[in-house]
């Protein structure tokens, strides 16, 4: 039910999706929604909790990577650039994963038309990723990781990483691509990494980073 409902909610606003439609898409009786989730609102909350749980490996992996990179880097700017390249690679790969694309559309919808799940999304995933980026940006710039400037930079970097999957049809139309597969995703990673490195004054390491 969570998968079926999530896909429907990613395509249309909450009020435009009926419980009958959800039950039909999931192949269950209408009563199953109230039995398992109490109501449509409860199902919607369960979808976001499931998405946040599914994205946990991304958060944990980046946290471990950042800790290891900062410990080893000290003041090695190349190590900071390597982390950015790996960050971009993992975020873009995760966003373009077939199992994640509808989730990205739903997350975008929630940020544009917030419900009570907006806070669940912020506390469970967005704040964590932004704070990790903030730590790195602060290390590079010398600013406080909680400063407004660093928060804005972290938001800009994450937005740049995700804009291609959130605007997939526009990207394909502009580039003349019929689809976005491995070779196109690699091009997206490369240009995104180059742009981010320049934005944090690490442009000299463009094309020299370790990706993973």
Q: What would your notes on this structure say?
A:
Helices cover 75% and strands 0% of the residues. Helix 3 crosses helix 4. The longest helix has 25 residues. The chain is built from 11 helices and no strands. The chain is mainly alpha-helical. It folds into 2 domains: 50 residues, Homeodomain-like (Arc Repressor Mutant, subunit A, Orthogonal Bundle), CATH 1.10.10; 151 residues, Orthogonal Bundle (Tetracycline Repressor, domain 2), CATH 1.10.357. The two termini are 34 Å apart.
Give a brief rundown of this model.
The protein is 75% helix and 0% strand.
CATH homologous superfamily (4th level) name of the largest domain: Tetracycline Repressor, domain 2
Give the count of helical stretches.
Answer: 11
Low-confidence stretches: none
Architecture (CATH level 2) name of the largest domain: Orthogonal Bundle
> What's the helical proportion of residues?
over 70%
CATH topology of the largest domain: Tetracycline Repressor, domain 2
Q: Radius of gyration, rounded? A: 19 Å
**SS-derived structural category:** mainly alpha
CATH class of the largest domain: Mainly Alpha
Instruction: Characterize the biggest β-sheet.
Output: none
What series of H and E elements makes up the topology?
HHHHHHHHHHH
């Amino acid at each position: 039910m969570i998968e079926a409902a999530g896909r429907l909610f990613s395509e249309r606003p909450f009020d435009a999706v009926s419980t009958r439609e959800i039950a039909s898409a999931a192949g269950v009786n209408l009563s199953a929604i109230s039995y398992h989730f109490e109501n449509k609102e409860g199902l919607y909350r369960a979808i976001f909790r499931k998405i946040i749980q599914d994205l946990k490996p991304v958060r944990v992996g980046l946290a471990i990577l950042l800790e290891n990179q900062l410990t080893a880097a000290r003041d090695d700017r190349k190590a900071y650039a390597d982390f950015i390249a790996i960050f971009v690679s993992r975020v873009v790969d995760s966003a373009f994963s077939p199992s994640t694309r509808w989730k990205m559309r739903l997350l975008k919808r929630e940020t544009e038309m917030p419900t009570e799940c907006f806070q669940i999304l912020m506390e469970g995933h967005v704040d964590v990723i932004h704070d990790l980026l903030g730590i790195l940006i602060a290390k590079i710039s010398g600013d406080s990781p909680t400063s407004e400037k660093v928060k804005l930079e972290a938001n800009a970097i994450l937005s740049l990483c995700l804009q291609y999957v959130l605007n997939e049809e526009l990207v394909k139309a502009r580039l003349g691509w019929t689809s976005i597969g491995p070779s196109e995703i690699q091009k997206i990673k490369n240009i995104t990494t180059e742009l981010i490195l320049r934005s944090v004054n690490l442009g000299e390491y463009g094309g020299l980073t370790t990706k993973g």
